[in-house]
Amino acid sequence: MTTKQLIQNPFAFIGVLLIHTCRDARAFLTLVVQTLFQLVTHLPRKKETIQQLYFVANGSLWTIIFCVCFAAVVTMLESSFHMKLVIQNDSMVPGFASLLILRELGAIVTALLLTSRIGAGMAAEIGSMKVTEQIDALKMLGINPIRFLIVPRLIASTIGCVLLSIIANLVCIFAAMIVADQFLGYSNGMFLTAMRRFVDFQDIIFASIKAFCFGFVIPLVSCYFGFNCRTGADGVGRATTQSVVFASVAIIVLDFVLSYTFSYFY
Amino acid sequence: MIKYKNLVKSFGTRTVLKGIDLHIKAGEIVFILGTSGTGKSVLLKNTVGLLRPDSGEIWIDGENVSGYSEEQFLSIRKKCGMVFQHPALFDSLTIYENIAYGLRKHFSMAENEIERRVEQALSLVNLDNILSKRPGEISYGMQKRVSLARTVVLQPKVLLFDEPTTGLDPVTTNSINTLIQSLSRKLNTTSMVVSHDMQCALKIADHIVVLDQGQVVDQGTPKQLLESEVPLVRDFLEEARNQ
Amino acid sequence: MIGVVPRFFYRLGQIMMFLGDVLKTLWHRPCRLELVLEQVWYVTLQSFPTTAMAGFFVGGIMTVQFAMQVNEFGAAAYLGGLSTSATFREVGPMLIAFMLSGKVGAFTSAELGTMKVTEQIDAIRCLGADPIQEVILPRFLGIIISSFFLLTGGLMLSVVGGATLGVLFAGINPQEYVRHIPTIMGWPSILSGIVKCLSYALVLATICTYMGYFTTGGAKGVGRAVVSTSVLTMVTIVVFDWGTSFLGQLMLSWFAIG
């Protein structure tokens, strides 16, 4: 599919695009259904799952903490800037910022970082297994590759994402508190009081639900692209790239849908 | 033509070449044999400056090139063409542009002259009618031959082949080997071929060098090698006889 | 844990040296303009849908979040200004750059990595050309130019997304949404957005070409290069986000005093 074809025959181009999209969507949904079926009907492989969980959670912990700290600092400074513009004082900043952190920032930054680390890693790993015919070898041994490869990753990533997002939220709030104390002149007590007024317990629940959904989507997308990897070094690179892009877009769209839905419960 | 003096190259803690001394005479076809991972390809890449030795000297045509800069190596690379293990054709260019690439970079040449040279090179490797295709559209064996043509078109004095027949079927292997032999004779070049294939080494080489663990364990003409007492060489010969 | 720090500085030094090489090549032996333009066209075309979509939704999310808070204070009129300003100065450039690092960065490092492991880069050197000049430089410049365009394009669409959600969710009509944008969005905000976009573009271009150019180890190596590209880009972008914000704050207080 090239630009030339688009210009020469736009209808054919759109048609082909549509057919391809439908076919890919069908293949993806089939994979999701198969995975869910395997998840329900078989006990997951315990050791593999725990190994994956270690890889997901422990491996990404420091990166996420590091990024989230910086994000928190920036959020605080920026919201103070905006508040001063609109209502001439920034007394609401601690409350607003902690709300923003819990509702959006914590979960989405964690999820996007996980996409690039875990999602890309899984796609590369499964893609190179596919290229080196290890997946065919599994099938020959009578092992269901979906149950063997995807289910442990799915469980590990979902649990890992929820845990990491809770830690990320915590660290983020702490970092924000320090910034408020050092740069904006709110003592920790003032910060916590303001936060108490704005934040409800359901915010934390909703943040965890978001993280759960994100953690669920990442491995499915990555494994789908990994399984459909074309041969050669070229194919693995392409699969990895596509999985990062699709997972990040899926996360942003999902975040939008969830935010919109949750907004009716506040 | 090419002389290696006590060449040492290591990657991190792993020493791949442990003091290679070799002399390659002009006009010969030299086969370098050895098991995988003994540094055969590393030796070739050191010769054209894609890798730099840690110590030791390389003399090409009476020049000591081991301390050369990237710019100085350009003249060496004009003289020594290398054919890579993968075809290493540029995916975004047509076959014609792939072969013309080196001509455009090394020489300033008129377009019709380039065209003539490209067609000549392609006929040397027995290919035609693929000039406007892209590397992805032709078979692997053809890609290998195009890659050969891309090197030959520069009319180098030395041809370096990095495992030219790995991953090819016996028929194509045979044709590539014949091609190496006929090209070397026709263009009167010195050839260094890295390979595992003792059988064809015995057939077309003037001189055979056997490497093991970064050192030369035996060398000589095919006839001398047949008499060798070195265990690794005997294994190789045994293997060649069984085929 | 101990090994992390020396490795970090080793990597950093390598990247800096690579960047130095690229800039030196740009100064002494610039590549052909067509090659750069080709890359710009290719990258822009390929990534525009992704960034546009990301921009639209980011604007939407910010509006939804701000609407809930602003409504409590009865300051709904400021919704447009607030969410646009927040998107422009902070969240927009960062999230869209995350997107780009997944799309452009990963793609480029995969492409260069494939060229490296299939010995195409070595072949270029053997055929008497400089791979940095022929392959890296066009991509480097192309990515900088086109990601700058893409980021600004994404930001524009974030305003559209914000306005759409303002209408759908907060019940503000578009005129009102747009009317207060200029009151809150000064030149400093726009400038800070643009500076951010530029610095992210530079980070992205450097890291992905570096990772691709130094790939080793076959198909697996290419995968590894792509993963580390996207992780490293994201982390660096977050750090740069903080750095530019901090600098911006510094500049603002400077000019306010002076």
Write up what this structure looks like.
The complex is a heterotrimer of chains A (about 270), B (about 240) and C (about 260). Chain A is mainly alpha-helical. Helix content of chain A is about 90%, strand content about 0%. Chain C has one domain. With about 260 residues, chain C is mainly α. Classes of the chains: A mainly alpha (about 270), B alpha/beta (about 240), C mainly alpha (about 260). At the A-C interface, α3, α4 and α9 of A face α2, α3 and α9 of C.
Key attributes of the depicted protein:
A: 266 residues; mainly alpha; 0% strand; globular; C: 258 residues
Short recap of the structure:
Chain A has 266 residues and is an all-alpha fold. In chain A, 88% of the residues lie in helices and 0% in strands.
Q: Please tell me the overall pLDDT of chain C.
A: 84
Largest sheet of chain C: none
Helical proportion of chain C? over 70%
Count of discrete domains of chain C? 1
Output the number of helix runs of chain C.
Answer: 9
Q: What structural class do the secondary elements of chain A suggest?
A: mainly alpha
Topology:
The complex is a heterotrimer of chains A (266), B (243) and C (258).
Chain A: H1 3-8, H2 10-41, H3 46-87, H4 93-131, H5 134-140, H6 145-184, H7 188-198, H8 201-227, H9 232-262
Chain B: E1 2-11, E2 14-24, E3 29-33, H1 40-47, E4 55-60, E5 63-64, H2 70-79, E6 80-83, H3 95-106, H4 111-124, H5 140-152, E7 158-162, H6 170-187, E8 190-195, H7 198-204, E9 207-212, E10 215-220, H8 222-226, H9 231-242
Parallel strand pairs in B: 3-8, 3-9, 6-7, 7-8
Antiparallel strand pairs in B: 1-2, 1-4, 4-5, 9-10
Helix pairs in contact in B: 3-4, 3-5, 4-5
Chain C: H1 4-28, H2 33-72, H3 79-117, H4 120-126, H5 131-170, H6 174-179, H7 181-184, H8 187-213, H9 218-257
